Each structure stands twice: as structure tokens, then as C-alpha cells.
Write a sequence for this structure.
């Protein structure tokens, strides 16, 4: 379907707008909700950069035009009723104007919503964020902090040990044990990335390139 064809199929509301959800293509993180008119969709499809319509200013705007936090669009998707659009994007910097990674960083719980930083939608991204917090805070009694304190050599050794245990489980044990050992391996691999200062996003990017 060409750009003009799918845009023509969009069911805009009475104001000529359609809601747009932006999702990080590598982590799966839901970044923001905004609005687009026909011009914004056409500019997005043509330039490959996320464009929206500002309802408060009644004008077209490109994400990151002032902050530099642009969204490179990898693909555009239309929902089953043709009345909502998904931008799958590679986000540069934080998506939210407040400086957080996502606009959906308010955790609703108890009588009052509490704003907490959200490290990402993907489970591994959230776990990497927790590991980074342990590395920064070094809380007493933390296994992760203790392992990081022992240096890259020890962390690397643990990754090797866990990899061997995965192989053994795959060949001699049941599915549950294999899943458990695989979880241990993934966790320690994330700790190793933290120890080396390699962001998980670099791994996502490498996997994305290979998938092409």
C-alpha cells in the first residue's frame, strides 16, 4: 500500500485528527501519545521523521525540532478500525519533555499517583535499569552490587558458569530447569554489560541490524 493510499484510509475525527502512539522499535517501550492530521502523516511518511499536529498551537511540529530528541520512524501501522496510528521509532534521547524516557512514567497506585522513572517496557530493559541502579547506589546486601564490586573478571566468570549450566540443563534436565538456568544466564549477562558500560540498547541495535 502506498503512502497516499493508507493515509486516505485513515478515519480522522471531526477536527481532522487521529491519535498516534509512538513505540520504541528496539525495546518495545511505549513512548508517547500525540495527534496527527493528514499533513503530519504525509510529512512522516515522506521524511522518515515523526511529525505531529499540535492542538494547542494548531500547527505542524516535528518531534525533536527544538530538543534534538528526534524520532526516526522505522514503520507506520494503522489499527484495525483505521482510527489510530502507531509510529514505531528509534528514539534519540528522552521522549518526554520532562526529560524522562517515556511520557508514561506515572505509576498509578494507592490514593495518589506517584511519578517514578520508567526504564522501559521490555522486561530485559527494566532489569537492566534495576542493575544500573544497584551499580550506582551499591546498597548493602545486594548480590548485584557485590558482584559488580568484584570486577569484570569475576562477572565474566559467572557468565561462563551460567552458560555451562544452560548447556547441561538443555541436554539432561527438564524444561523448567532450562528456563531457570537461561534466566540466570541472561541476568548475569546484563550485569556484565553494566560492568563494561555497554548499554543494552547497543545489543538491541546489533540484533536489529542482523534481523534485516
Amino acid at each position: 500500500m502506498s503512502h497516499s493510499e493508507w493515509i486516505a484510509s485513515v478515519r480522522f475525527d471531526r477536527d481532522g485528527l487521529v491519535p498516534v502512539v509512538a513505540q520504541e522499535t528496539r525495546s518495545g517501550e511505549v513512548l508517547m501519545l500525540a495527534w496527527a492530521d493528514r499533513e503530519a502523516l504525509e510529512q512522516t511518511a515522506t521524511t522518515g521523521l515523526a511529525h505531529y499536529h499540535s492542538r494547542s498551537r494548531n500547527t505542524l511540529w516535528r518531534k525533536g525540532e527544538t530538543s534534538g530528541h528526534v524520532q526516526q520512524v522505522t514503520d507506520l501501522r494503522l489499527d484495525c478500525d483505521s482510527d489510530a496510528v502507531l509510529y514505531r521509532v528509534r528514539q534519540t534521547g528522552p521522549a518526554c519533555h520532562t526529560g524522562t524516557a517515556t511520557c508514561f512514567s506515572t505509576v498509578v497506585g494507592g490514593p495518589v499517583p506517584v511519578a517514578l522513572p520508567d526504564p522501559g517496557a521490555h522486561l530485559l530493559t527494566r532489569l537492566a535499569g534495576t542493575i544500573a541502579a544497584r551499580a550506582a547506589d551499591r546498597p548493602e546486601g545486594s548480590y548485584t552490587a557485590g558482584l559488580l564490586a568484584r570486577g569484570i573478571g569475576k562477572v565474566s566468570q559467572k557468565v561462563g558458569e551460567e552458560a555451562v549450566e544452560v548447556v547441561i540443563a538443555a541436554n539432561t534436565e527438564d524444561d523448567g530447569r532450562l528456563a531457570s538456568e537461561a534466566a540466570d544466564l541472561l541476568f548475569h549477562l546484563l550485569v556484565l554489560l553494566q560492568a563494561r558500560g555497554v548499554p543494552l540498547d547497543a545489543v538491541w541495535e546489533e540484533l536489529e541490524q542482523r534481523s534485516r
Notes: The mean pLDDT is 91. Strands lie at 18-24, 30-36, 51-54, 59-62, 71-78, 85-91, 106-107, 114-115. The longest strand covers residues 71-78. Residues 69 and 92 are 5 Å apart (CA to CA).
